[in-house]
Amino acid sequence: MVKPVLFQVAGYQNSGKTTLSLSLIQQLSGAGLKVATVKHHGHGGKPDIVEEKDSGRHMSAGAAVSLVEGGGRLVLHAENGKWSLAEEIELLSCFKTDVILIEGYKREGYPKAVILRDEEDLELLDVLDNIKLVFYRDQKLADLAKELSYPVFQIDDDRGVNWVLDYIFKQV
After folding, report:
1. Which of 23, 33, 55, 139 could be joined to 98 by an S-S link, Cβ 3.0–4.6 Å?
2. What is the pLDDT of residues 28-39, one digit of tens each?
3. 58-82 burial, b for 16+ CB within 10 Å, e for fewer?
4. Is the whole-model pTM more than 0.70?
5. Domain boundaries, the chain
């Protein structure tokens, strides 16, 4: 048993990573697993925080970390030069989760599903490590299954999501 199980959803922007991640989160948590997520903010700059709230004001005043708790919800804002994925995973480890689902960070070496939008994205298969399965959006890629050594599914095929779920459940 490995705890937590780490699994990535990788692909270029607008490939469907968030949609797939949401489905996995819902089904894993629905099965009773405690799931944490890490999402790479790939839009440039820092993710938004609500500047006029106290925690945002604390950060603007120079706090390195601001934590707000209320009604069981905890919101953490932290500033660092640059966070590595390993540091983010270490931070999440204190929550004692069963699964950490990583959206993005495609160049990291964790087990992953890769989503291909079209033929231009095929280069990902040559440059990414630890690919466990592939999802494709463009029907022109349907024949990939004949060429690859790992499973290939159309993005809307529930068998692909079920494959990922089975993979994670076997690790937990």
Report:
1. 33
2. 999 999 999 998
3. bbeeeeeebeeeeeeeeeebeeeee
4. yes
5. 5-41+81-171
Q: Which two tokens stand for residue 20?
A: 């797939």
Question: Is residue 131 within 8 Å of residue 112, measured between CB atoms?
Answer: yes
pLDDT on residue 168: 97
Query: What separation, in Å, do the N-terminal and C-terminal C-alpha atoms of the chain show?
Result: 6
Kindly give the residue spans of alpha helices, DSSP state H, lying in 94-139: 124-127
Q: Is 12 exposed, middle or buried (0-12, 13-18, 19+ CB in 10 A)?
A: middle
Q: What's the length of the chain? A: 172
Q: Which fold, 5-41+81-171?
A: Rossmann fold (3.40.50)
Burial class (CB in 10 A: 0-12, 13-18, 19+), 110: middle
CA 19, 83, 25: angle at the middle one, nearest 5? 25
Query: What CA–CA distance (Å, rounded) separates 102 from 23?
Result: 13
Given a contact cutoff of 8 angstroms between Cβ atoms, the answer to whether 116 and 134 are in contact is: yes
If DSSP codes are grouped into helix, strand and coil, which group holds residue 57? Answer: helix
Please report the pLDDT score of residue 1 as a whole number.
47
